[in-house]
Each structure stands twice: as C-alpha cells, then as structure tokens.
Amino acid sequence: MTIDFYYTPGSGPCRFVELTAKTLGLTLNHKLMDLHGKKDHLTPEFIKINPQHCIPTIVDNGFAVWESSVIATYLVQTYAKDDSLYPKDTKKRSVVDQRLYFNLGVLGQRFVDYYYPIWMGIGTPDQEKFKKIQDCFEILNTFLEGKEYVAGDALTLADFAISATIATYDVAKFDRSAYNNVTRWYKKLQSSVPGFEEINGLEKLNAIFAAYRQSRQ
Ligand SMILES: N[C@@H](CCC(=O)N[C@@H](CS)C(=O)NCC(=O)O)C(=O)O
What residues form the membrane-spanning segments (predicted)? Predict the structure, then answer.
C-alpha cells in the first residue's frame, strides 16, 4: 500500500493529516510541494490530480483525496482498527463533525482573516478581526469545560485538527493564556499523543515560518 502525501512544511492542515496517519500507524510517502517559489501545485501534473490545487492532498493507490478533514476521516474509515477517532454513532460523530467544521470555518478562517494580511505585508492589525479570534478561543474554552477533549471524553480527529491550528496561532504569538481549559487540553495532547511534538513542536514551526518570511523579503 502506498499513500502519496503532497504537503508543504508548516501547514496546519498538513500537520492534522500527519497526526492522523501517525496515530493510525500509516506510512506516508512524503511529496514536498513548493507553493511559493516553484509553485508545484499549479503544474499540469498536479492539477490533474487535484484541480483545486490545494495542499494537503493524498493519493491512495491512485485515489486522490484533498481537504484535511476529508483526508483524515477517509484514513480512519479506511484503515483504523476501530471507530474511536471518528465514531460511527451518529450523535457522537455529529459532535466531532461540528468541531471539524468549527476548525475549518471559524478558528482557522479567523487566523487567515487577521494574520495573513499582516504576514504578507498587505494589511495592518484589525482590532475587529482580532476580537473575533478571542471570541472563538472563548468558544473553544467552553467546549472544553469539564471535558478532556474537544468533542467530549475521548480523543478524536477533532483534537488533531484543532491542535494543529492552535500550533499555528502559537507561531503567531497569539496570547491564549487566559483560556485555562485550552491550556490544560493542549498540554495533555503534548504529553500523551505520540509524535505530537515532532509534528506540532513550536521550535520547529518557528524555524519554518522564519525561513518563509525571509524568503519573501
Ligand atoms: N481547508 C483546506 C485548507 C488547505 C490550504 O489552505 N492549503 C494551502 C496551503 S496550507 C494551499 O494549498 N494553498 C495553495 C492553493 O490553494 O492554491 C484544508 O484543510 O485542507
């Protein structure tokens, strides 16, 4: 079995897929994509694989999948020994799905809205957008009130998705110290999920993003 994994270093959605694969014991065939210099994602070969040309993308024995949550749920449903990371029970699954959509449409999107213009040098800090980030950390803190994990009492894909995004917020030095439940949960993942630090570790991410910023100067 060969699963090709088209990735770019530092990407939160790519790290979400890596955490999932690692937990499932799957070996990914890493295919490094240079999105900014060579624009590997816009080549005719890659557009043939993924017309939406986004990363991460996997190709599992000729079958292409993209969008990190879809990749992660595909991997669990295809390869996991049990359904713990993505429960079959419809109520439990709907909570996991809700958190995955929260990560995609709210937590991740608000990062893009506020930080990208600043990082790309095309905008200045917008306090309204910053307040929206604080609002969604408040919501995440509420999800975790009295709970061990973001979708309840068991580790699921939602923890991988959201923690990968939080690691990107950490690179941006967003101060999340006021959100105690988030701090407790994140520390627990750091110490209990195999490969978590190797994949989401702040030092490594800081170096990747610093190199990226330098290459743009
Ligand atoms: N919602 C997507 C986001 C993926 C995404 O934003 N990918 C960026 C790199 S981190 C990308 O591929 N950008 C180039 C493009 O879309 O053409 C996911 O979760 O997979």
Answer: none
